[in-house]
Amino acid sequence: MSASRTERLLNLLIALLNTRYGLRRGELRETVYRAVPGNEASFGRMFERDKADLRKFGFDVETLTDLGWSEDDPATTRYRIGKESNRLPDVELDPEEWTVLLLASQLWERAALGTAARSALRKLQASGAVANVQLPAGVQPRIKPAGQAFDDLIAAMHARHPVSFTYLAGSTGSEEQRTVEPWGLGSRFGHWYLMGYDRARKAPRHFRLSRFTSAVATLEREQFSPPLDFNIRRELERLPELPLRTAVVDVREGRLLALRRRGVATGAVQDGQFDGGPSTPPDAGYERFSLQYRDPEVLAEELASYGLDALAVAPPELADAARRRLRAAVDFSNAPAPAYRFAGAPARPVRARTSEDQLKRMLQLVPFLVHNQGLHIQDVAERFGISRQELEDDLQILICSGLPEGYPDDLLDIQWENDHVYITQDLDLKKPVRFTVDEACALLTGLESLNGLPGVAEGGALESVTLKLLAAAGEEGLQAASLAGPEVAPADAGTHATVLQAIESRSQLRLTYLAPQRDTVSERNVDPLRLYSLDNTWYFEAYCHSVEGLRNFRLDRVQAVHPNGRSIPAGTAPAAGVPAKLFTPKDDDTVVTVQLTRQGRGLADDYYAERTAELDDGGLVAEIRFGNTDWLPMFVAQHGGSARILAPADLADAARNWLAASLARYGG
Asked: Across the strands, what pairs with 624?
């Protein structure tokens, strides 16, 4: 779609919406298509494509014929769009319901569903002004999608295209190519799962996204139909949790305090045997521990990140998984460096904007301006996530669009000369279009994820706003059953309540905290500022008086916490903006150039990359600030072949040597 086609479609939409009896093709050609060259046959093909595009946007283009005449006669066939075609019904929300809805819309911190949630919220705001609500003090729950594969699967699932990918089978430990019709995506046991029809096995199967070993390829020329009444949450509830198993791990003396707390010291293996296989005592300087786990891949990711400080001894599949991750990290780190050129800003894992996006945005923009008159043009641009120039391009198209006659009163009337935007003629575009499937899924799944959040789940607002949105979303809302997010309830409700109370009362806290990267337990006084989560892992941002700066603390690493009797000094407040940042870059941090594969490119967002360069294979090169560069080899090992260090050269060399030595411990 070119800009001229965008303008033509908008004019065609306005014309068909504002006719009671319908318009004939000849009338439309003389008005909407007046400047389009070509003969009657080419015009007919263009008109049919344009009607198909409007139907793709959800507008029902009605065909009317005079009594006794056929639709094949263009002289007697008329076209129109009903006034309520594809219009979002009015949704009246009280302040408590707006509060819950705003929390739900902020859950998706990034990726395609984050964009969809913001778009859906704008549509609701375009139906009427947002109530003057106050979000819960300092609480920002968030859902963290599982990388680029999540976005690719969502797009394929909603477009009903099959997908293919390479998968590490849990039953055999081997990589296999899978072609799947994606029915649903959901979170269970702390992991994201795809469920769909496996064409090779001719049966429904579920696949854990963390076991994908390749990018997701979408088979765009093929379509499928999912089962009726499919509900991913119901299906995943039938999925049994993996049984508890025991691992044997050798840990370097005096290191890995967090891992030691979870394990039990075992000493030497009795009779030199373990699980039927030979075993030897730990090397000098190491101690042997046994610890429980459920998924070998999860524990292997952790153990690989510890390098020489930990060695998986048994069972063999755990050692193999750790070795495989280290091998992938070594191979990627030793590969030739790609050619790249940095762009001015970090790339986001969302598809590029198109003219189709522009038309969708303009259909939101008009009703938004109708109900929010006089906003500053920069505020409007920020609400829509675009630059001021992009917004002005939209407005220029809008003010040239209108009814076929083209008289002044037949055009959209928008002014922004004093930098405040007003619209006085809306040509019946004052109601937003219905939710897309992505928008309905983002809001309804977000609301469902809030079920366990203290202070939200107890009231009736969550249930009532969910029912109202289901009614407004219609058929698209029913498709939200194909997506199920994690519950964002905190695991340690007591610590969560203590920190939340301190934020609300502006009370200082005394904290005993375990820092795994530094292998230390420290006590410190902190000013808690806000709570936030990534899935069900909760953090709180605080000013730490020991380091005299902002720090983020994981609640599950807090060993003790209580008010120390002091108040938070006046003027101490969290930084503006949503979401809260998990990492706070500082001026004296080291700027590190990192290469990320397509599977790992989401890390550029996670670590707030300052510049990025796109690679031909779908990966990225990113510049990221790190305060503690000693941690970089652990970072590379943890992501097992999805990330490597390119510069500075000394840090890249140190990471390669660290990885090679760690792999050698496993006989690699």
From this structure: 592
